[in-house]
Amino acid sequence: MLAVKCFLFLGITFLMINCNSLKKVETSNNYKIEVFKSNDNSTYLNLQTFLHENRKEKYYAVYRINNVIFSETDLNNLTINVLPGKFKIESGLIGKEWISLNDFEVKRGDSIVMSFFLKDIKDPLY
Fold this sequence. Notes:
Blueprint: H1 2-18, E1 21-27, E2 31-37, E3 44-51, E4 62-65, E5 68-71, E6 78-81, E7 85-92, E8 99-106, E9 110-118
Parallel strand pairs: 3-9
Antiparallel strand pairs: 1-2, 2-9, 3-6, 4-5, 4-7, 7-8
């Protein structure tokens, strides 16, 4: 039994050492940004979109990063390897209000998870 406990302790310790450490969380009514430090010094943007009314239900979305359009083909997160710098990042879809983050700075080694919460547009589309 002692060997099992020791093995579990070492396994959990190993996982904790190798996992990314949370550096910063920024939230607003329309988005949540979590900044982690990657272990291999790579820089990533991980984008995901949810409905504003139900923040647990993922939603298809279109993203614009510095005016380059990306879209999800399924409900997985869109993960992009990027160089450090400043970005204009937008998320939206027909019938939903677009969310825009201007001059968002990404530093070397950042692994950033951005969650967008899209609201219905107030004006009809016709």
